[in-house]
Structure formats: structure tokens, C-alpha cells
What we know:
Elements: E1 4-6, E2 9-11, E3 21-26, H1 40-53, E4 62-65, E5 73-74, E6 81-85, E7 88-91, E8 97-102, E9 106-112, E10 117-123, H2 125-130, H3 132-141, E11 151-154, E12 164-165, H4 167-170, E13 178-181, E14 184-187, H5 189-199, E15 207-209, H6 223-226, E16 233-239
The structure holds zinc ion (ZN).
Amino acid sequence: MTGNTADGIWVPDGWDQHSRLRVGLTTASWGNMSPYVGDPQESLHNRTQLAEHLSLGDQGWTWAEQVHGTEIAEVTVQKKGTVGRCDGLASGVSGTALMGFFADCVPVLLAEPRSGIGAVVHAGWRGTAGGVVQQGLLALVRHGVRVQNIHAAVGPCIQGNCYEVGKDTAARFPKEVVSFAHGTWRVNLLKANMLQLTKAGVLERNIAHSHACTHCSAEYFSHRRQGARAGRMAAFLILRS
Ligand SMILES: [Zn+2]
């Protein structure tokens, strides 16, 4: 399973059928979405454009100040702007529009489509090593959702061969996601998160993922390719009644 990119937004395969959810990941053509890098006015403009494109209304986006940790915030009321420092947002409140920011790190969308409960998770190498995706799944389980009913989508991120790391970082991952070639250690973050999902009980048929590498494709922002000035793409999950 992969997904399709229309209007500059990647939508995972199958997720356009879920009437209670609207999900996607903006490509670089939408510009920087994060209020924490670049020009804040420009990112506000870009988020507003996206909200209008999705007919979101004026309730606004909810996001987190991402810190490469494993904490997930439960969003219990509609809220504009940040909920504070954490790396995932979960909610069952219809009308809520969750957003996470990405440039190489792994975007993971989790949802129980029929009940309209979902989460957006930000998994960089630290978050992946710490199991942030499992925390995202637990947040949904706390809503009474069964893991077998959770659908997951893993968006464009830096892919296996492109993500070079030091030996100490590589040592924090299971052997099956680590490789060593031409004197360099590499970690497959996509595979690492996919393994965490299936080990936690998410069914393979309920997992969609992108094959796109943010580092290789100019369609996406990449921290490794563009440096600290790289914009951030938005992964979003809107809960509808
Ligand atoms: Zn690549």
C-alpha cells in the first residue's frame, strides 16, 4: 500500500473512504507549516490556506511543540495552537484538527475510523527508539478502541539507505532495522515503526505506508538535505462527526 498525492497532499491508500476522518500530509509545494521554523506569518498563512482548502472552518489547527520524546497529549476540547511540549496528539472530539510537523522524521497517523478517534504521532530516531508509536496506540486504547481495529498510515520520511547514524544510535535499534555499508551505519526508521505497529497487534492489512523518501525527493522537505532552514510539512488528521 502506498497512497496518492493530489493537490500536493499525500493521502494514504484507503483513508479517503473513512467518512469520519480527513487525513494527509502536505508536500513542500504548500510551504512551511511549522510556527517554530522560518517566518511565523508565512507559516500561519500556509496553515490558513490548508484549512480553507479542506473546508475546515475557523476552529483552527491543534499542534504540539515537538521535542523528540514519547509523550502523547490527549486533546479533550477544540483548541487553536499548541497544547505544549510533546510528540503526539490524540483525540475523540469531533471537529478537532490535529497537526504534526515533519522534515525526515516519520509521520504516523493512527485511527479507529468508525468511531472517529485518532492520533498524529511524530517519530524521529529518538521517538522511534523510545516507542512513541506504542504510546500513540495506548492513547487510542484508553478510548476503548481495540488494537485490531486501529488503522495506521506511515507517511513520507527519510528511508532506510538514506538515514546514516552513528554507531551509538544504531545500537539503540533492533538488528533487523540496522545495516552497515561503506563504513556507515544506517537505520530504517520506517521499518522500525512498522515493526512496532505489528508487534503491538495492528493488523498488516490495516497499515498503509508511503515509499517516498524525503531525503531523495525534492517534493518533500528534508532536514538532512536542506539543513536547519528546511521547512516542515504538516501531517493532519481531522475528526468529523
Ligand atoms: Zn532517500
